[in-house]
Amino acid sequence: MDYAFFQAYWWFLVSLLGSLLVFLFFVQGGQTLLYTIGKTEQERTMLVNSLGRKWDLTFTTLVTFGGAAFASFPLFYATSFGGAYWPWMLLLVCFVLQAVSYEWRTKGGNIFGHKTFEAFLFINGFGGLVLFGIAVGTFFTGSNFSVDKGDLTQLSMPVISMWHSPWHGLEAVMNLRNLLLGFSIFFLARVLGSLYFINNIADDLIVSRSRKQVLRDAISFLVLFLPFLVWTLFSQGFAVQPDSGIVFLEKGKYFFNFIQMPLVGLFFLIGVVLLLYGIFLGAFSKTSTKGIWFAGIGTVLAVLTLLLNIGYNHTSFYPSVFDLQSSLTIYNSSSSFFTLKVMSVVSLLIPFVLAYIVYVWRVMDKKKIDKAEMNEENEKY
Amino acid sequence: MGTLDLSIIDWSRAQFAVTALYHWLSVPLTLSLGFIMAVMETLYYRTGNEEWKRMTKFWMRLFAANFVLGIAGGIILEFQFGTNWSNYSWLVGDIFGAPLAIEGIMAFFLESAFFIVMVFGWNKTSKGFHLASTWLTWFGATLSALWILVANAWMQYPTGTFFNIDTVRNEMTSFSSVLFSPVAMSKFFHTVTSSWIVGSAFVIGVSSWYLLKKRNIEFSHKSILIASIFGLAGILLTIFTGDSSSYQVAQKQPMKLAAMEGLYHGKNGTSLVAFGVLNPKKKMYNDSTSPFLFKISIPHGLSLLAYRHCNAFVPGIQDLLDGNYLLTLENGEQVKPLTTDAKLTFGRMSHQAMIDYRLAKKDKNDSLMAVNKAIFEATSSYFGYGYVKEKTQLIPNVSLTFYSFHFMVIFGFFFLLFFLLLLYLRRKIQNMKWLLWLGIFSIPLAYLTSFSGWIVAEVGRQPWAIQDLLPTFAAVSNIPVPSIKTTLTIFVLIYTVFFIAIVGVITHEIRKGPENIK
Question: Are B102 and A343 a contacting pair at CB < 8 A?
Fold first, then answer.
């Protein structure tokens, strides 16, 4: 197992975390539906308590995603966060607002009232998701940065990663493809949120409204995501010459990646089919509550394979449109061989972590949330 | 390429300091109250007495309200290394990033998963599983502290690493050196055990208020007993680990120690300042103005603390920057250490060697590459000195470091006496109003003492982001100052709102009291 193996392994892990995060964004999606699906205080309390048992898992996945990206691809972490300052900072603000909202929303002594924290949850859902999608969009569309390690010894300006737009990342909103991806993730999260409500809440009104909402948001998602996907697959991609490491533009690069990595392509298609089946179950079945599982697994597979597409097969996962040769690949931005090996030993804990999360999920979700529990239970959000 | 706006450094430092201090409002309470409530739930589990369950649930509500504040603050810090300290993230991320990733995988998921069961699973799980969840939440939080403190310790003492001239960054050579570094171990135990004092003071303070109001008498006495024992264990371990931490600081960061003590000129058998007032007229490190207006000293105290030898020479600021002095080793032998002038020379040599190496590499000149690589390897430990223009840049803020250190130690000893007194008096405190009020005021006092420790650690290491390797002025991102001012303002506004909210929520819960919990 050589250096390249570990670099590919860690890109897989970071992509897996990213894909699990997008699935867990059902919490954020659900937050934007509190007043759409919940028409009374009691209904909204059920929705909040349903999401509230899971919000911290999404949050932790986001934090771990950032930590893993730092540890395994520190040049990406430094260049992107230190350059695209505004999208990342605004995204952080959206999540900071969420962190306290569940816990303090209905507590006595909350002088700001429950609507303030519900507004925070909406901001987290809308802002957090759209900004995340725009940031990830730049993985496909490129950003304005350059990297020169020689600058480290320039006493007047020792910073090696430079951003060449005064908007420091906000310029990404002017790129239509980034916006398409941002809003795609927003509507996908709402689909998953509604599917989760169907699975986790025993209330006829909530379930029937959720089923209608699945279809509405699924249509919005498809209308936005399909153009993004087709456009991205067949437009210029950022390819790398294997021997020299020179970065160049190649038309249809991402489409060819799926063809040249058939397993990745196949699992992408499987993911799409599962996602569509989950949507079908949620929107059209009268009784099934399992839509979340098909759509969730489908989401994980589709996002995972899209991220593998941009990292593998001699592709730049974080391209620069300012200076193509500053573009980042899993080979030129990763940590050292030693560090990746050490962390890989720790990564063996991941199946164990997933196992106890699944166990806790089952324990907490084995009985669905209903009005009776909200009336009886003292400990609730 | 332009010139770095130097005010970026101070604004970036201010933002990190503010967000870190806000985070620290929550963390020590999580680390300590988590343990206290887990002990109470264990007593419930073993005795079946519903009173212990009620007590656990009460403290758990306060724990939960506080826990989420820590989460809110923590995420900002995780990402701020990248947003505002990108050069740092690049130069040392190979070592620094690993503990942060491990913290997420090993600790954050543990505390977040079992936190859910702890808060909402009372009627959904068995008593044993719920108890395990409470302990695992506390354990996850403590494990998280381990990894982030390992990372912070590495900033103070960068071990297990080498500077790779080809990749232009520091790279890890030994994970065990990083994890088990003596600085990491003493820092972890010192930070965690000192946090126990905050939770103990919190429980004692709230219970004291109930006793003053003549409410929840039995609840309060039991809570005070558990908290006092825990607090006493905490302060004793804090003192022990504080001693080992100071010893590490003396060995690895002698300038920090000098600032902690306001020491400009050392001698064989240097005194420890028990208490003192610094002379504001002392402007230059090498002027003849006395550094103190007044001080009470313990003879030979600092030599013993710093070098475990009563006549060891403890270098002061001027000795470190200008002087010739002898360093005392563990076996008592005295050697001549490297002077600051030499370190500055080596720093500049390492920079030049890197520049020349890269040029030679472009020209494919192997022999010149080899020569410069050798020079670099010999001097790269002082790479950070290559950025330093004047020696005075190497002096941290002496008054802030000095007063924070002495405040911390003096009130640390106050808490030792305080917990001993509570344990000695037991239920008699019920009728001692002055002591009950002191109990309430011990809450902000504990926080201030805890904050002081962090100020010593982080102000005392300035100007170093990474000791000797990277000063703050080469560690930042090139972000315009107005952007940093804007995000700092946003954070201050948000945290102010949060602070008002949490005070409201917690005081409401305290006023409602445990008697209303089923």
Answer: yes
Q: Please name every residue paired with A247 in a beta bridge, in sequence order, or none if there are none.
A: A240
Q: Phi, psi at residue A366, to the nearest 5°?
A: -65, -30
> Does A285 reside within a domain?
yes
| Interface contact A88, partner B, CB < 8 A | yes
Domain region containing B234: 20-256+391-516
What are the distances in angstroms from CA B437 to CA B281, B421, B433, B446, B506? Answer: 39, 14, 6, 14, 19
B441 in any annotated domain: yes
CA–CA dist A169, B380 (Å, integer): 34
What is the tens place of the pLDDT at every residue in A19-41? 999 999 999 999 999 999 999 99
Which stretches of B348-503 are assigned E, i.e. beta strand? 464-466, 470-471
Residue B465 lies in a domain: yes
The answer to whether B476 contacts A336, with C-beta atoms less than 8 Å apart, is no
Complex confidence, ipTM: 0.93
> Considering Cα of A289, then A290, then A293, then A294, what sign does the dihedral take?
negative
Residue found by looking up tokens 């006495």 in the block: B221
Of A79, A93, A107, the CB nearest to B86: A79
The pair phi, psi for residue A20, each rounded to 5°, is -65, -35
In this complex, the residue of B74, B97, B169 whose CB is nearest that of residue A71 is B97
| pTM score of the predicted model | 0.94
Q: Is residue B193 in some structural domain?
A: yes
Q: How confident is the model at residue A185 (pLDDT cuts 50, 70, 90)?
A: very high
How many domains, chain B?
A: 1
Average pLDDT, chain B: 95
Which of these, B198, B195, B199, lies nearest to B39 by C-alpha position? B199
In chain A, how many domains are there?
1
A381 within domain boundaries: no
Interface contact A96, partner B, CB < 8 A: yes
* Per-residue pLDDT at A308: 98
Amino acid at the residue B494: I
Task: Decide if A6 touches B, using CB distance below 8 A.
Answer: no
Q: Residue A139 domain-assigned?
A: yes
Asked if residue A99 is part of any domain, the answer here is yes
Over residues B216-227, the pLDDT tens digits come to 999 999 999 999
Q: Which of B461, B474, B469 is nearest to B187 (CA)?
A: B461
What are the chain B neighbours of A380 within 8 Å (beta carbons)?
Answer: 120
Percent of chain B topping pLDDT 90: 91
CA distances for A111 relative to A103, A105, A107, B26, B59, angstroms: 14, 10, 9, 20, 21
B290: left (phi over 0), alpha (psi -120 to 50) or beta: beta
Query: Is position B483 within any domain?
Result: yes
Pairs of CB atoms within 8 A across A/B: 284
Q: Which residues of A touch B358 (CB under 8 A)?
A: 150
- Closest-CA residue in chain B for A166? B480
Residue of B nearest to A113 (CA): B501
Q: Is A74 on the interface with B (CB under 8 A)?
A: yes
Q: What is the mean pLDDT of the segment spanning B177-187?
A: 97
Provide the β-strand partners of residue B169.
Answer: B164
Give the chain A residue whose CA is nearest to the CA of B349.
A153
CB atoms within 10 A of CB A162: 23
Closest by CA to B270, choosing from B280, B282, B260, B278, is B260
Residue A346 has, within 13 A of its CA and on its CB side, a CA count of 23
B59-113 confidence digits (pLDDT tens):
999 999 999 999 999 999 999 999 999 999 999 999 999 999 999 999 999 999 9
Rounded CA separation B507/B509 (Å): 5
* pLDDT tens-place string over residues B327-370: 877 777 888 889 999 999 999 999 999 999 999 999 999 999 99
Residue ranges making up the domain that contains A219: 3-376
**Chain A neighbors of B485, CB-CB under 8 A:** none
- Phi (first) and psi of residue A378, to 5 degrees: -80, -40
